[in-house]
Amino acid sequence: MRYFEDFEVGQRRVVGSLTVSRQEIIDFATKFDPQPFHIDDAAAEASIFGGLTASSCHTFALQSLIYHQGPEDIALVANLGAEDLRFPKPVRPDDVLTLSNETTATRISESRPEIGIVSMRSHLANQHDECVMQMTSSFMVRCRESA
Amino acid sequence: MRYFEDFEVGQRRVVGSLTVSRQEIIDFATKFDPQPFHIDDAAAEASIFGGLTASSCHTFALQSLIYHQGPEDIALVANLGAEDLRFPKPVRPDDVLTLSNETTATRISESRPEIGIVSMRSHLANQHDECVMQMTSSFMVRCRESA
């Protein structure tokens, strides 16, 4: 388990990878973001992307999934939010996505000294090393002493 | 269909509402964010939230779903990203979530004059009028003339 004390500014890690299928893209978008260019091949061909792409909500959820598939368990308390969330390139069927991150800030919570707040720059890239999502997110992590 | 020309800075809208069930919270988290406090009642009771809460990825996807359940169809080209994404309160089972937004900026794309870029401040609140998610997002919208 990785506690607040285990995060250091400047640490870089490759969290893990996964492959997303055409059917997963269509299923997620059908449920949460049924834009024609996420669920219909003809509409997707006519879009500026020229083919089926994943909903940005799906891309956001996939970076979460990569964390949980990885070997490392963070003593997470809550997600606080993010700055500079970008989707520079779309995710396409059969893309292999790799998540890496860098710890950019750490501090103890003022109101809860048993909890620390970590900020992290995340970078999700496809198999062509194109960035499909980036953000600087902040989350609350338990301190080891409190565990 | 709502085109770029239909967005004006300062416009405020209530997009729509939905109710999220306990089972939906568990199903989404099981797939994308299987933290104990999203999928297990005992772990959730012991968390700082004192009960089951939705994954922030799920909350993010639910605001997308409210857009699509609404009566209004935006001539969306692509989501670009967001600033100031926050999850001030968690989403809980049977919460009734209402999405409202305000257009904060509009401009024509420099590289694609047939497309405009709209920025919007979104606010997702529960039935107690507590904010569960906010962000300022930007997206590309087709111009009416190009349609």
Summarize the structure.
Chain A contains four helices and five strands, in the order βααααββββ. The first copy, chain A, is an alpha+beta fold and 147 residues long.
What's the layout of helices and strands?
Two copies of one chain form a homodimer.
Chain A: E1 12-19, H1 22-32, H2 36-39, H3 41-46, H4 56-69, E2 76-86, E3 96-108, E4 115-125, E5 131-142
Antiparallel strand pairs in A: 1-3, 2-5, 3-4, 4-5
Notes on the structure:
- The structure is a homodimer of 147-residue chains.
- By secondary structure, chain A is α+β, with helices and mostly antiparallel strands.
- Chain A has a single domain (4-146), classed as Hotdog Thioesterase (Thiol Ester Dehydrase, Chain A).
- Helix content of chain A is 24%, strand content 37%.
- Chain A is built from four helices and five strands; from the N terminus they run βααααββββ.
- Chain A has helices spanning 22-32, 36-39, 41-46, 56-69; strands spanning 12-19, 76-86, 96-108, 115-125, 131-142.
- Chain A has a five-stranded antiparallel beta sheet, with helices on one face.
- In chain A, strand 4 (115-125) and strand 5 form a beta hairpin.
- The first copy, chain A, starts with 11 loop residues before the first strand and ends in a 5-residue tail after the last strand.
- At the A-B interface, helix 4 and strand 2 of A face helix 4 and strand 2 of B.
- Strand 2 of chain A pairs antiparallel with strand 2 (76-86) of chain B, so a sheet runs across the interface.
